[in-house]
Amino acid sequence: MKTGAFIVFFTIVLVIYGLVNSYIFIRGLQSIPVGSSLRPWYVAGFWLIAATFILARILERAYPCGFTGIITWIGSFWLAFMLYFILIALFIDFARIINHFFHIFPSSFYVDYQRTKLILLLISVATVTLLVAGGFINARIPRIKKLELHIKKAVAGEKSLNIVMASDIHLGTIIAKRKANRLVSVINSLHPDIVLFAGDLVDEDLAPVIKNDLGANFDQIKSKFGVFAITGNHEYIGGAESAVKYLRDHGIQVLRDTSLLIDQRFYLVGRDDRDKSRFTGKKRKELGELMQHVDLSRPVILMDHQPFNLEKARELGVDLQVSGHTHHGQLWPFNYITNAIYELSYGYKQIGQTHFYVSTGFGTWGPPVRLGNRPEIVQIKLIFDQ
Q1: Peptide bond preceding 333: is omega within 30 degrees of 0, i.e. cis?
Q2: Three-state secondary structure call for residue 15
Q3: pTM for the whole structure
């Protein structure tokens, strides 16, 4: 991404982040009685916590250390708290507007209005804390999603292919050694013929991945035909070339606009992420160009991180496309936004003879929290109908 465009983007994000936090701060401050000894603690504590996310983004790449890790964890959790605090504040303010016209609140609500506001603040904090805690637990318990799909093609010597696929791992400070070990352990327990990582294997910054030697986990994956990956937008955010080199050094074959015939049996097509042009100024190859020399009498599996233009894959004879990227919103109610943006935000869909699966992802971006969906590892048994 060009420096000027990055500065504009960062400025917009910073302004929105500041406005949202200011709104939450003001509504919270109004709930604490004037003159209360809690007010100075609230002011200092609120802005100290709110600043951690921005501070962490600056420090994580330049100074990856224990202190930076703590700041990153606090800032990441704050994003989830911020989302639900703003939703609650907006809901309360909307209710106040309705009450102004229709008087829906009981008269007792105003007997000690300051006390009522303080009680609402405490209830809001407790509610959001419980939501975030539940979402944190949920994000740490991935499920295994199993599918059985049939394609009308024969493969000599093979009746089926056991595919294990995961996307959006986001290895880094938050998704670290323990979760990487869990990922590899589950993958090996499924005895895959082939392992596919459909983008965003690493988060923006490679420094904590290298520091904690997270790539060593992937050396332990056992797969008949190997381990393959594609780039996602987060590889490009952090620097795709260094991320790809690191993954290849740890036994992962990264396909970048490449079509590969695996063991003379089936094709695997891996696309560079569609955000490549935004970060490098160079366009990725068109899918038609990648499919130009593919023999369609053999099964064709496509990895494309962002699930756009599904119809194109069908037109070109792809049998199975796997994608990620959406996280299906990760935090409710963002799933409504991803549903509006993508033809398939999550799950399975068949268009013509082409099967599509978009995963919620294994890891998380930002807050290590999921509400409204589960993290997953996907096992696809692809059956070749003779």
Answers
A1: yes
A2: helix
A3: 0.93
